[in-house]
Amino acid sequence: MTHELRSLVAARAALAAVAVLALFASGCAIDGLFFTEVARQDHVRVPAPAPQTLTGTVPQAPGAAIQLFGANGKALDGLAATADGLGAFAVEIEGTRTLTNAILQAQSGPRQLLAIVPSLPAQTSVLNPPQTYDLQDLSPGALQVDATTTAMTVLVMGRLRANGQSLAATSPYSITQALIALHQGLVQQQAELTKFAVMVAQLTAVDAAAGGAVTPLRLMPLQGASFLDPAFLAAQPVDYTGDGAADTTTAEFDAALAAAVDKFAIKGCFQPDRIRVVLMTRVVASPKNANCETFSPWKAADDKPTSTVFVTGGIHKETVACSASRTSYCLTQPVFDAAHASLGSWKPNQLAMYDDATHGDETANDGIWSLAFDLPYWDPALAPDKSGVRIAYKFTYGSQGQTWTGSEEFPGNQRVLELKDVNGDGLVTRFDLFADETTNKDKSNDLASIKGGCGQMKWQADTVGECASDTVERKVDLDGDCVIDGWPGVSASPLTITCPES
Ligand SMILES: [Ca+2]
Ligand SMILES: [Ca+2]
Ligand SMILES: [Ca+2]
Ligand SMILES: [Ca+2]
To answer: Residue 411: is it exposed, middle or buried by C-beta count within 10 angstroms (0-12/13-18/19+)?
Structure first.
């Protein structure tokens, strides 16, 4: 035997020993018959794949009950364990089972700590030895389950709810990316994220031995309900705001969460070059514009009871066209033409809008008319001149096929919109009151100078001096009290693709 061969044999023996040690060290029972069968290459009896183990630590809650929940918020049967005296835990998971956007909860009395497990793959082969995954390798920022991972979990859930997305319908890749961004934001002490994380830290610091087992955080509150359980505050006075007085309502928690979820995005795996756009308007008798002044919607359009709402427009001429020197972040002529046609090619009263909860419309008969379009897209921030796909459009109030006369919201000018997904929900949404000349109207814009109005609308990248730009999607005043409330509701879902594996 040559020296080389002897070394090789020794190395293989050592490797085998390590493998066997690893099997025993994992503490999982392996059926001796399984090895015999495999050794004989006899596959008559196919054993179940070896189990997997999820390990981690929750130092703040030694002895805690550990439970895994699915992406639907329901407890996963059998996926539970008890942490030891130092907070270490190991949850055994059947080898056939895949975890996707699962939530791990550690509970000790009223003390509750959370973390997200974006993905834990099932065993790919019955021949695989038992696998052990540590939470910190699966969940960015989860070196241990603590107040920070708890805050990150609620922030992810809050962001999804604000987007109208569900955890179950979001890719683990997207959740992983969001956790990375969130953790970075917290490390950098981003103000809104930190404020919310401090509140969660107060709530999770509640004495585990205190009476009651009502935990502070709800995994899947009903729409409109708080992620903070009021029953917890009632049973367990906590000063989560840090002003020295116990807090009895969820109001400040909810406000801090709403502010914090605006500071990061959950980027789904959206189509890279197309986006769904929902245009919305409302025809009301005495609307208030962005100056908070009442205006008439009937300056150019006739107030006819038989009329309905239409929209028309096209690609704005200031969208960059592809050329020899610009081959990306631009529109080719065929793409330009198709998108222009889908926006109505500036023919009035042809493209009907809907107030029946279809075509992107969220609520039937609420007076908000909507129409969804699928248009070419790139993120303007990535373009060399920071410009995106730019569209122009106008609403009309008339009858099918009517001319502009007596139906348009204002003559001579148009609304402008640069396609940019500001809130990261994979949609571009834009709501403007019919005939409001203070928002995204391009010329003769009536926005008051005190609000940054300069008479005309500049694209965001071209904004100079103190001129306000109102050319991208944004939150709006939904109830006409001149205070901006939130994102307009739509029933459209984003254009998605299968996510790349992380
Ligand atoms: Ca307080
Ligand atoms: Ca509606
Ligand atoms: Ca959006
Ligand atoms: Ca309002």
So the answer is: exposed
Per-residue pLDDT of 77-117, as tens digits, reads 999 999 999 999 999 999 888 888 999 999 999 999 999 99
Q: How far apart are CA 169 and CA 426, in angstroms?
A: 13
* Alpha carbon separation from 407 to 30, 233, 295, 401, 483 (Å, rounded): 78, 55, 17, 11, 29
Q: How far is ligand 3, taken at its centre, from the CA of residue 419, in Å?
A: 9
CATH code of the domain occupying 274-462 = 2.60.40.10
**Displacement of CA 470 from its chain's centroid (Å):** 23
Question: What's the confidence (pLDDT) of residue 45?
Answer: 53
- Name 401's Cβ contacts closer than 8 Å, sequence gap at least 6: 349, 350
Q: Enumerate the CATH 2.60.40.10 domain ranges in the chain, comma separated.
A: 274-462
Rama region for 465: left / alpha / beta (φ>0; ψ in -120 to 50; rest): left
Ligand nearest to the CA of 251: 1
- Kindly report the number of other CB atoms within 10 A of residue 10's CB atom: 10
Tokens of 106: 């550690």
Give the contacts of 386 (CB within 8 A, at least 6 positions apart). 380, 460, 461
Q: What is the DSSP letter of 459?
A: P
Ligand positioned closest to the Cα atom of 241: 1
Q: pTM of the predicted model, to two decimals? A: 0.55
For residue 370, which ligand has an atom nearest its CA? 2
Those residues whose beta carbon sits under 5 angstroms from the ion ligand 3 are 421, 423, 425, 427
Q: Whole-angstrom Cα distance, residue 373 to residue 363?
A: 18
Closest of 78, 71, 63 to residue 116, by C-alpha = 71
Place 23 in a pLDDT band, splitting at 50, 70 and 90: very low
Q: Once rounded to an integer, what is the mean pLDDT over residues 412-419?
A: 97
| Residue-level pLDDT at 103 | 98
- Rounded to an integer, what distance in angstroms lies between the CA atom of residue 399 and that of residue 402? 6
Ligand 2 mean position, distance from CA 29 (Å): 60
Question: 474 C-alpha to center of ligand 4: Å?
Answer: 14
d(CA 211, CA 209): 6
- The residues, ordered by sequence, that sit 6+ positions from 93 with a Cβ below 8 Å of its Cβ are 51, 52, 53, 54, 79, 99, 120
Residue with tokens 């109001």: 251
- DSSP-derived secondary structure letter, 441: B
Ligand 1 centroid to Cα of residue 209, in Å, is 22
* Burial class (CB within 10 angstroms; exposed 0-12, middle 13-18, buried 19+) of 138: buried
pLDDT digit string, tens, across residues 297-327 = 999 999 999 999 999 999 999 999 999 999 9
How far CA 370 is from CA of 282, 290, 362, 432, in Å, comes to: 9, 20, 8, 11
Quote the ligand 1 centre to 185 CA distance (angstroms). Answer: 25
